[in-house]
Amino acid sequence: MALRARRGLAALLVPFAFAFAGCDISLGSLQGRATDEWTHHYSLSPGGEVRIVNTNGRVEVEGVDGPDVEVRAERIARASSDEGARQLLPRITIKEDVSPERVSIETEKMNGVLFGASFEVRYHVRAPKNAVVNVRTTNGGVALTGLAGNVVARTTNGGVNARGLTGGLEARSTNGGVSVDFAAVGSEKISMHTTNGGVTLSLPDSAKADLSVSCTNGGISVSPDLKVDASEQSRRRFEGKMNGGGTPIDLQTTNGGIRVRPRATAENPDTVPQAGPREFRKLKSWRERG
Predict the structure, then answer these.
(1) pLDDT at res. 112
(2) Residue 9 predicted with pLDDT over 50
(3) SS (H, E, C) the chain
(4) Any idea where the domains of the chain sit in the sequence?
(5) Which terminus of the chain faces fewer neighbouring Cβ atoms within 10 Å, N or C?
């Protein structure tokens, strides 16, 4: 009798869940799962924009040669049963707005409350390396590779990680770290901000930049291996010119540390170096001298 009652309650909850879909309220273990994916190709004019707006899920963008944009979207639905997840899956809607100058892909929000279920969309994008890239997600990380155009990357609950960039950047996170490796620094501004998380910036030795660094609860480390003439330095703020100055670089965090260091050697340009004990000793002695 109790088992039949529980089954009856579950049957009632499934339509109730989809009638109030949107905000994720998951109760108990969501063992049911359903997935599908699609891959779409577009052609983008030189200097065009690729825009990805997501609600729940990670966004990855890789810069490639040529004018083509490839977007692979994985839709993932979770519920208390596989059947419930399969019912939810078609309600995860992805909207396309495409022209020669702009490819815009957006996960549409569900109305109401998603009760006893959850969903996410994971985007894997290959875009022309010189395109303007605008990525926004709410619950998920952002990963960027090999982009040369201006990039905007924003997330609320997740980090921003990038490597091999050569263009301008605006990277922002609320709950998550921001870690970026630049293969070269151009004339466009570089801005990296987070509220709860650390900031790490890796630069080529030859980069010309004006550094403005500040944090509220955390420390600042600028590697002595970089040629930076400091005009202001303290535990909470640093101002200086690297190789005589140039590109504006603004780094900020509220709760977390900030670190500026040299990138990898030319033999392995897409690898960010890891700091060892020797580098940390150098940073410590530099701060003591300052």
Answers:
(1) 62
(2) no
(3) CHHHHHHHHHHHHHHHHHHCCCEEECCCCCCEEEEEEEEEEEECCCCCEEEEECCECCEEEEEECCCEEEEEEEEEEEECCHHHHHHHHHHCCEEEEEECCEEEEEECCCCCEEECEEEEEEEEEEEECCCEEEEEEEECCEEEECCCCCEEEEEEECCEEEEEECCCEEEEEEECCEEEEECCCCCCCEEEEEEECCEEEEECCCCCEEEEEEEEECCEEECCCCCEEEEEECCCEEEEEECCCCEEEEEEEEECCEEEEECCCCCCCCCCCCCCHHHHHHHHHHHHHC
(4) 1-126, 141-290
(5) N
